[in-house]
Structure formats: structure tokens, C-alpha cells
Design brief:
Helix content is 36%, strand content 17%. The chain has 236 residues and is of the alpha/beta class. The protein has a 7-stranded mixed beta sheet with strand order 1-2-3-4-5-7-6, with helices on one face.
């Protein structure tokens, strides 16, 4: 917007938040959420579990936007390590150059939500050009990580649960340690364009995971019905 005298306003580039400050404030926020569970006021609350919850040591770098856009991501992971905390990074895979240079997290998740480019563009609506190619570049890098790697398939009924061979071909090339077949949940902003009928039933997730295991050589390792998820592990 123009300034008071008609000249354009030049805004300085915002400096990304310091990783240490982010982690410190995350602990503060965690403790605020636990205020109502103080065992002094509520005898049924386990005091040991309360203290454990007040002092988190596992960090999920995910959920609020794409974490690889944060310019100090590698420093954030390093700060977690310096505190003896674990770091769990979840990315949509559209910034492979970041994955190429960051310090390794404790665990790396890459979301893979479509068996082909057309489905991917329709379902994910990527903002970056060549997002499909960039995602596959990230998948190809998984074998270079020494930490546990996971490819998460967020499965949406009626949208991306077709062409299991398409998924299998990409997963065989990426060779992650684990594959997570997870049902879409009708929450958040997705409620504006998807319906509850797009949430697969657990039996559908099991069937999909079984067929995928047959085509990849992975084995069913575990499942959780409440979360509608089946975990596959690399065999060998």
C-alpha cells in the first residue's frame, strides 16, 4: 500500500523466530494447558505423569503449515538434539533442497497422497510449480537418511484410494522404513471441501494396506482402529 505521501512502503523482511525461543515458548504453552490438571487440586491426577507432561522432550515439527519453509529448520532440529529431545518432522515433500541440507531429525515423515499427477493436483492443489516432481525428488532421497523414514498415505474415500500399483511403484523406489496407511479425518479446513463420507472405514484401510503390502513386499506391523491407521514395515 502507498505511504502517506504517495510513495510505496518498503517493508523489511521479517526475521524468522529463534529456534530456542520457539522451544521455550512451546514448553510454556504446554504447561498452561495443564493448569487444570494439577494433582494438588485433583487427587485423581497421577503426579508423576503430570510432571512428565510438564517437561516435554518430544517435538512434532508439523501441522501448522509446511515446516520446510522455516528458514531455521536445521537449527531447530539441532536445538532439539542439544536438549536431548526427539524431533519428528512431517513434510509434504515439495522442498527437496531443504531435506538435502538439514540436520537429520529423529524421524522423518513425507506425505504422499496420490498415485498419479492428475489426482495429486486435484486433491492437494499445490501452490508451487512442478510440485509433483519435487515430491518424487524428496521420496528418492529417503534412502539417504539414517533416521527412521516413513511415507504417510492420507487416504480419502472416493478421491485417492484407486490405482494401488501407482502407489506401490513410487514406494518401492523410495524404500522408506515404514508406510503408514491413514484414513482422512473430517476436521479443520478440509471440512470446507470434503464431507464425512470421504472418511474411509477401518475395514477399507485394512484392505488397502493388505493389497499395498502384496505389491511392495512390506508386512503389516501394527494398526489402530480408533485412528483408522495401519502401519507397514519393510521386510528385512
Amino acid at each position: 500500500m502507498p505511504g502517506d505521501r504517495g510513495f510505496p512502503v518498503v517493508r523489511e523482511k521479517e526475521v524468522p523466530d529463534d529456534p530456542g525461543i520457539i522451544l521455550d515458548n512451546a514448553v510454556i504453552a504446554q504447561r498452561r494447558m495443564l493448569n487444570g490438571y494439577n494433582p494438588v487440586c485433583h487427587p485423581k491426577v497421577d503426579s508423576r505423569m503430570y510432571e512428565e507432561a510438564r517437561n516435554p522432550c518430544h517435538v512434532a515439527i508439523s501441522l501448522v503449515g509446511e515446516p520446510t519453509l522455516y528458514e531455521r529448520l536445521s537449527l531447530l532440529i539441532g536445538e532439539c538434539k542439544s536438549r536431548n529431545w526427539t524431533s519428528y518432522l512431517v513434510t509434504n515433500g515439495t522442498n527437496p533442497e531443504v531435506l538435502h541440507q538439514i540436520e537429520e531429525p529423529t524421524q522423518l515423515y513425507v506425505s504422499f497422497t496420490a498415485p498419479d499427477r492428475t489426482t495429486y493436483n486435484k486433491l492437494c492443489r499445490p501452490a508451487l510449480p512442478k510440485a509433483w516432481e519435487r515430491l518424487h525428488e524428496s521420496l528418492a532421497m529417503l534412502s539417504t537418511f539414517s533416521c527412521p523414514t516413513v511415507v504417510r498415505l492420507t487416504l480419502v474415500a472416493g478421491r485417492n484410494m484407486h490405482d494401488i500399483s501407482g502407489y506401490a511403484n513410487a514406494l518401492n523406489a523410495a524404500s522408506p522404513r515404514f508406510i503408514e496407511c491413514k484414513a482422512y479425518m473430517h476436521v479443520g479446513g478440509s471440512m470446507q471441501r470434503l464431507s464425512r463420507t470421504n472418511m474411509p472405514q477401518m475395514r477399507e484401510i485394512r484392505q488397502f494396506a493388505t493389497l499395498l503390502a502384496d505389491q511392495t513386499g512390506y508386512v503389516v506391523k501394527n494398526e489402530d482402529s480408533a485412528s483408522r491407521v495401519v502401519l507397514l514395515a519393510r521386510n528385512g
